[in-house]
Each structure stands twice: as C-alpha cells, then as structure tokens.
Specification:
Helices cover 24% and strands 46% of the residues. It is α+β, with helices and mostly antiparallel strands. The protein folds into 2 domains: 146 residues, START domain (Alpha-D-Glucose-1,6-Bisphosphate, Chain A, domain 4), CATH 3.30.530; 141 residues, Alpha-D-Glucose-1,6-Bisphosphate, Chain A, domain 4.
C-alpha cells in the first residue's frame, strides 16, 4: 500500500511529549464470487501477490509468506525514487470463510511508521460474498491514516476484482500428505496423471523447483495439442507450490496459480487455485468447462496415488 502523512488526524500527547495518533478504519466490499473463493483470494499468498499493489506505479515484493496461525508475511512496497516501505504481517487467527486477524507493522528506512490490528470478517454464499475489514491503527513516526485509507481502499478494490476472476478447485484425497506431494512434485510421475480424463502429457523440459519450469504439451483425446508452460516461483515442501501458467513456451501469461496440501484426518485436502489475468480469460475458461476438467485432473491424481 502507499502510505502518506495526514496532519489533520486526531492525535494525543504521551507523557514524553510524543504525538501518537489513533484511528479505527472500516472497509466493506461486496464481491461477485463465492465465499470459498473470496477466502482463498484473501489468504493464499499467490493470490495476495496479485492484488497487493494499490496502483500500477507500485511494486510489491514478497520476501516471506506463511499464512497460518503464528506465521507471518513480509513484503516490500517499492515506488521509483522513494524509499522502500516494509510491511510485516503476522497471522493471529484464521477461521476459514469466517474471520482472520493479523497484526501489521509498517516501517521505512529502519523507522517504524505504524502498527495496526487488522480484523477481516467474511460472509456469503456460493454465489456472492462480503468482506468487512477493520483496521485499528496506531501511527508512530508520522500520521498514517490517509495512507491506510488510500492503500487499503485500492488494495481491496483489487482484491474484489481478483476474486471475481479466481477459480478454486478442492478435493480430499484418501492418502497421507507426503504421498500426494511426492506424486505431484516428482518429474517422473507428474506427467503421468496431469490433465483431464483422456488427456496425456508430452514433456519437453521439467524442473520442479522454485525458479524451475515445466514445458509440455497436453494432448486431447482427439489429438489436439495444447502447448503449456508452467513457471514455478515458490515450492514449500508438502505445503504449497506457486506458479504461473503460460500459453506455450515463453508465451503470454494467463493465470497465477497455486496448489496447497493440508492434513485432514489422515487424508490430504488439495486446493488448486488460479487467478486469471483477465475477466475475459476467466469467463472463457469457465465456458469450456475448466472447473469440471480441473476436478477430473484431481480425480486422476487420487487414482494415481491409490495405485502406488
């Protein structure tokens, strides 16, 4: 977010003469996406990286991202010609589809600018959802209220747009997480099950590491060839992977994607998410049955793991 001083904010003096400023800010957004999708867009690191920058002139670099209670997220907000702004977010509570609570500390050039408690309440259905974010802000080095108003407002506008072009697929696989992970992140086995029913994969290059890639063709039952290029930007063993989808080798990007793996009573809950680059691409994907085809892919993964 961009943060700018606002000298008009209410302030009070502390015993040592400092001027501390306090504010409670509330943001509300109605989103044309299912509640389950909004939750993923709000919490999944790959999705947060898509909508975090409040405007095109701002670049947000994520240094660390661990979305679980006790985990933290560290990012740098970069604007050309200005000092970087460091934001540390620590997750205090996560109730999927209901609520999240995190602290946020913002600093620049080694000086802490503000601290805040951020509470997000979510509600909705399988059609639409609602997000209410309350920020209890304490400005320290300078007044940050206007910057938070602008940064959070623009960021949540971006979030709503991203959620409306996000596709989330989930399946509980009756196998330990290590077995599911090893079937996914093994260059020998991934091409054996990837893709919908009747599709096969022809690999050109595969390197399943952060910074690696998978260049391959998916071949439909009728012989139609679909060139694919996955570029991997994050690999956290047995937890999640993050990657981008491209139309063929070095082709245009059409989605930012992630897969996460969670223990669930001895089974593994797999979540596959994709934030499409444009609303038109999202609608096109839905139109040709990407949800159904993606669920078929996860079904093939389950059968493959069971056969091992």
């Amino acid at each position: 977010m961009t943060l700018n001083p606002d000298p008009s904010s209410t302030a009070r003096s502390t015993p040592d003469g400092r001027r501390d400023r306090f504010a409670t800010l509330t943001f509300e957004r109605d989103v044309a996406a299912p509640l389950s999708v909004l939750w993923q867009a709000w919490t999944a690191p790959a999705a947060r990286a898509v909508w975090a920058a409040p405007m095109p002139s701002v670049t947000v670099e994520f240094l660390e991202a661990d979305t679980r209670v006790g985990g933290r997220e560290i990012s740098l907000c970069k604007v050309e010609g200005e000092p970087d702004i460091r934001c540390e977010c620590g997750w205090l509570a996560l109730q999927p589809g209901v609520r999240s609570v995190n602290y946020e500390v913002v600093s620049s050039e080694g000086v802490t600018q503000s601290a805040a408690l951020v509470t997000a309440n979510l509600s909705g259905t399988d059609k639409r959802s609602r997000l209410v974010v309350t920020v209890q802000l304490s400005s320290l080095a300078q007044d940050m209220e206007a910057g938070y108003q602008a940064g959070f407002g623009a960021g949540l506008d971006n979030l709503a747009g991203a959620a409306e072009r996000t596709m989330v697929l989930q399946r509980v696989i009756q196998a330990p997480r290590s077995a599911v992970w090893n079937s996914w992140m093994n260059p020998e086995t991934l091409p054996q099950w990837w893709g919908p029913e009747g599709f096969s994969c022809r690999t050109k290059r595969i390197d399943l590491r952060a910074g690696g890639e998978w260049v391959f063709d998916m071949i439909a039952p009728d012989g139609t060839v679909f060139p694919n290029h996955h570029l991997y930007n994050e690999v956290r063993p047995e937890e999640r992977i993050g990657y981008t989808l491209h139309w063929g080798e070095n082709g245009p990007k059409h989605a930012d994607a992630w897969a996460s793996f969670e223990d669930q009573d001895g089974a593994t809950k797999v979540t596959l998410g994709m934030v499409f680059s444009t609303a038109a691409e999202f609608q096109e994907a839905k139109g040709f049955g990407a949800v159904e085809l993606g669920l078929q892919t996860l079904g093939k993964l389950e059968r493959f793991v069971a056969s091992r």
